[in-house]
Design brief:
Strand order of the largest sheet: 2-1-3-4-5
Number of helices: 22
Radius of gyration: 23 Å
CATH architecture of the largest domain: 3-Layer(aba) Sandwich
Helix content: 25-40%
Distance between the termini: 66 Å
Number of strands: 16
CATH class of the largest domain: Alpha Beta
CATH superfamily of the largest domain: NADH-ubiquinone oxidoreductase 51kDa subunit
Structural class: alpha/beta
Number of domains: 4
Largest sheet: 5 strands, mixed
Strand content: 15-25%
CATH topology of the largest domain: Rossmann fold
Length: 497
């Protein structure tokens, strides 16, 4: 049998991967089509791979119309074709990455627990079961892992707080409400390597003494929901979840809960409100969720990539993970390149790479071929950067120094046709739509901001931005001024009639 890999993630399916897989299966009874996850090279999807003696050979992007010519060219033996990309492992886009968290994405069948275990899966959990709670937390602290959801708070400190809290019940909550524009790394991880998230959450439970975990999943991710639920069931059957994890007598279980379709539920306390069946509105802090969280109990809240980074930290050690990155930004981060770009996709790199490397070396410049104008990093509330910022290092402190945020690692590219006044106005419009309405600066300020831009009252606009920054209850209102002020400062001509 010849193994042919066709991805099963949302992006690939949207580009016809299911039909391509069916068409390839019909070619010969000697073909075994394996539906793997994606490598994250979305510009090549659907990426079809054939297992050869030299390794997996890639072709892409493949449509149904290409299958007959691929067959005639001998693609089952790695034959040459216009869509030939060479050995998958040698594709520059992939080869130049540092894959730690996403090492298995694209490599394995997402729902094969054997594939997962054969590629270092559950090694971190097996080591964690031999350690005390404090020893697990100490490894996370040593690794320097910080939250990958935007705030970049040290994960080990958060876990330590929950570990030391006294309570009969504690919880692990995974924030998978991935709503930032230009972000899809959580989706790729959950669709391509779901056991990694399950393993990371289980280790977190062991570390802090929690027995129950919840994945708060974006409602727009139906395929994620299906894959996660199947993976959780498989993990339970194989004793990697449930009442007797790996025969240790330890208990931990996970449930998937769908989000409420609200951007603000990505904020941790609004997410807790939604999980409790209430309207997703931000809670005042203190108390912190680590003390009084879900159902009033101590709760660890991390996003998908924070938790998915945990298995390799426990397997290889905190020092191994900390060897990647610079300064206080340790390990790797998944950058997602999208917008007006030739080669969009996911790139996992150690902190410290510069912005130009991602935009030009990986992304290949603008898709339109026109001059690059703006780069928004960190979601719809991230700063707009210009061509002058291409040497900026991608790490939390470097971005903070220039008034920008790395956020979830989303990078959206705009060419010279973009009008930055329109983009600034969009930030206020977005905030007005997505605000939970609990605090006045966010609820009213977003609407007034749109009016001030339309009326070109930029002096009062600056005052409004300062007010929203200092007085909003959460980051929704507090960060809205970031894209507005960056656009106004860098492209003042766009704000003139």
């Amino acid at each position: 049998m010849i193994n042919v890999y066709v991805p099963r993630d949302t992006a690939s399916i949207s580009m016809g991967a299911d039909d391509v897989a069916a068409c390839i299966s019909a070619l010969s009874t000697e073909i075994n089509v394996i539906r793997n996850g994606t490598w994250g090279m979305t510009y090549l999807e659907p990426l079809v791979e054939v297992e050869t003696n030299n390794g997996r050979v890639a072709y892409g992007p493949v449509s149904v119309a290409d299958v007959s010519s691929l067959y005639a060219a001998g693609f089952l033996n790695g034959g040459d074709h216009l869509l030939f990309q060479g050995l998958t492992s040698e594709i520059d886009y992939l080869k130049k990455q540092e894959r730690l968290t996403f090492a298995r994405c694209g490599l394995i069948d997402p729902l094969s627990i054997n594939d997962y275990k054969e590629n270092d899966g559950f090694k971190g959990l097996e080591k964690a079961l031999k350690l005390s709670s404090k020893e697990i937390v100490d490894e996370i602290i040593t690794s320097g892992l910080r939250g990958r959801g935007g705030a970049a708070f040290p994960t080990g400190i958060k876990w330590n707080t929950v570990m030391e809290a006294e309570a009969e019940q504690k919880y692990i909550c995974c924030n998978a409400d991935e709503g930032d524009s230009g972000t899809f790394s959580d989706r790729i991880l959950m669709e391509s390597d779901p056991f990694c998230l399950i393993e990371g959450m289980t280790i977190a439970g062991l570390a802090v003494g929690a027995t129950m975990g919840y994945i708060y999943l974006r409602s727009e991710y139906p395929l994620c929901k299906s894959i996660l639920k199947k993976a959780i069931a498989i993990a339970n059957i194989n004793n990697y979840l449930g009442k007797n994890i790996c025969g240790s007598g330890k208990y931990f279980d996970i449930e998937v809960r769908l989000g409420a379709g609200s951007y603000v539920c990505g904020e941790e306390t609004a997410m807790l409100e939604s999980l409790e069946g209430k309207r997703g509105m931000v809670r005042a802090k203190p108390p912190l969720p680590a003390h009084i969280g879900l159902f009033g109990k101590p709760t660890v809240i991390n996003n998908v990539l924070s938790l998915a980074s945990v298995p390799i930290i426990l397997d290889k050690g905190g020092d191994h993970y900390a060897n990647y990155g610079i300064g206080r930004s340790r390990g790797t981060i998944a950058f997602q390149i999208t917008g007006n770009i030739k080669r969009g996709g996911l790139v996992e790199k150690a902190f410290g790479v510069n912005l130009g490397t991602l935009v030009n070396d990986f992304g290949g410049g603008t898709w339109s071929g026109k001059e690059l104008k703006a780069i928004q990093v960190g979601g719809p509330l991230g700063a707009y950067l210009s061509r002058d910022d291409l040497e900026l290092l991608l790490d939390y402190e470097a971005f903070s120094e220039v008034g920008a945020v790395l956020g979830h690692g989303g990078i959206v590219i705009f060419d010279e046709t973009a009008n930055m006044k329109d983009q600034a106005k969009f930030a206020f419009d977005f905030c007005a739509i997505e605000s939970c309405g609990k605090c006045t600066p966010c609820r009213i300020g977003s609407t007034r901001g749109t009016e001030l831009i339309e009326n070109q009252d930029y002096e009062l606009l600056e005052e409004l931005c300062d007010l929203m920054d200092t007085s909003s209850l959460c980051a929704m209102g507090g960060m809205t001024p970031i894209p507005v002020k960056s656009a106004l400062n860098k492209w003042p001509d766009d704000f003139k009639d």
